[in-house]
Amino acid sequence: MNNHNEFIPAVNISPILPPEDEFQLDFEILDCVVMSDKHAQVAIITDNEIDRDALEIGENSRVVFSTFSKYPYLCVHLKNVEKFMSITVACKCENDLIRELTFSNRRSNVHIHGNTLSAPLIISDGWQYVNIDLNKVLLNGFGVKFISCLEVVIDGSTRVSKMFLQEQEYADAELPPYLRMIQ
Question: How far apart are CA 115 and CA 117, in angstroms?
């Protein structure tokens, strides 16, 4: 757990996965809803490449994480398993509307319709660190400012080891040990 001699800088984050100060994942402590058909699968596995627990989401599965955070940067550490996947974020904006932002490796262009925006998510092979500036996306897509994040949904085939919202972009070394990419 935490080494009390180690200096941990003050950062403003809202952890989603894993929950605060947890190094291992457990469905008993995760605040999420799993939706899938009878052939889909969601499991907690230990990924050999990173030697850590990860949430493995199979095809036709969806995991919904309810959250409330005023922090505009969504960070996700995910593994590209060379199948389609998406991240959908429900955000409240300055005009009190809820906007839905979907980032998918299936898309090749940006599409805006009503209160929804769909954009490409370009990910390489293996584990990726994705940092999405929700305020910037809302400003560019709708001309409005971000107020809060209400929900994050992961669809399709991928593995996720960490997911959190942060007030600003922090260096890996500034994060608490359980959220660092480099151990």
Answer: 7
What does the alpha-carbon distance between residue 55 and residue 49 come to, in Å, rounded to a whole number? 14
DSSP letter at 172 equals G
**Among candidate residues 153, 166, 159, 148, the one with its CA nearest the CA of residue 74:** 166
CA 34 vs CA 10, 118, 126, 165, 175: distances in Å:
33, 22, 24, 21, 28
Going from N- to C-terminal start, the domains of the chain cover 13-179
Q: 17 is written with which tokens?
A: 């996965």
**Closest C-alpha to 117, from 147, 92, 137:** 137
Number of C-beta neighbours around residue 85 at 10 A:
25
What's 13-179's CATH class?
mainly beta
pLDDT of 100-138, one tens digit each? 999 999 999 999 999 999 999 998 889 999 999 999 999
Kindly state the helix (H) or strand (E) to which residue 151 belongs, with its residue range: strand 146-156
Tell me how crowded residue 72 is: count the other CB atoms within 10 A of its CB.
22
